[in-house]
Amino acid sequence: MLKSVKAGLERLQGARRSAGALAICAGLGLAAMLAVAPARAEVAAWIVIDAESGAVLEQKQARRQWYPASITKLMTAYVTFRAIGAGRASMKSAVVISANAHAEPPSKMGFKPGTRLTLDNALKMLLVKSANDVAVAVAEAIGGSEPAFIAMMNAEARRLGMSATRFVNPHGLPDNRQVSSARDLALLARVIWREYPQYRSYFSHGGIRVGKRTLKSANREFLRRVPGANGMKTGYICNSGLNVAVSATRGNRTVIAVILGAASGVERVAIARELIDKGFDSRRGRSIEQLTGVSGGPPADKYCKRNSRPTAEELLARFGKKTAKRSPLMALFSEDIEGGRIRRGVMPAMAAPAAEGVPLKADGKTDWAKVMDRVIGPRRQALQVIPVGIGTPNGSAPPAVAAGAGSTLTVVDVPTPKVKPLGPAAASLVPLEADKAGKAAAGPAPGAIFNGQPLLLVPVPNPRP
User: The whole model's pTM is what?
Assistant: First the structure.
């Protein structure tokens, strides 16, 4: 009997050793799989600040240099606001599309050289549609030339203390010499917010309407889903990933956040919502003025290729609002509990949160609208779209251009061309009062900006004008 017991114990020990070996092998196999599979990078950098006090409420690598992409246009707008404040321009000033501006790649409006706009409409196209051709036209109107305007941008950056920033263009298209940081961009956003409250609405529009065509802002889901959202500016190039500077006001406080290097539009807005919410829960931090210098260089080229887009499952696991099973008694007193009128000690025990699956459409594809409802929040308002058009009031003149102490230059005016079709998309580019040119070209599929690619809506020029 003792022999049989001893044999049984030996068999049991052998089974345990085998199980342990299998567990080790499984662990090693999993580790090998994880080593082979490319890990998705985290969002590179962010910062959250109080707009009034300038307190840094939270930050990650905020001083690391990064490619700003179209957040650059915040500085383009700021230099323009400064020119208006100095009396060298007004919102009715003429902006003329030059051949140089027309040559810029998308995102763009595609207006023909010689097309005239008011500065008001140009700024709306620049900030809502992120039009690169219009950014250059504004730069030429305010600075006299694109290089002169870029010098003004860098002078303002130095004056404001943007220690990690250098500009080489007014739009943010790829150029590895153009760098900034989350800290510097938040500093700029705060200055705009505080110094020019009269222009805050320019950053808050969900879209513009040109003729019969609506061009939607890449920041529209933040504006529609985040409580108190004011907007500001998004940006995307492959070397930077998806960037955004946002602000929101709740009660008597405004919080500003800058996020750099997100991998998809949904992730970008979800992180912005999360950081803004955290910002309102905090008040103290050292001043952004004290967070100076540079703490790292920009990413290697083709950052977007290495930073894969998160799946719906990953987004829901990271940001999704989970539901918890509650007892009937808990449901009965839910309003009191949520209102803080029942002490935690007398609350019934709650079950662990239950994960929900990925919402699907009838065709079996991911329902991204419902995913966004869960990771960002439900839409709180309709899309806010404003009309814009080409042409200028009779007698409007180009802005006066600063050219050193005590002197000015006048921008060479280009006669307004007759409105002619530019091709299939011509109806989207005629003045609003003359919008009878036919159907506008179809835009991208709904939700296109949330696939990690920039929104490109470019009129196709007629090959034989």
Answer: 0.75
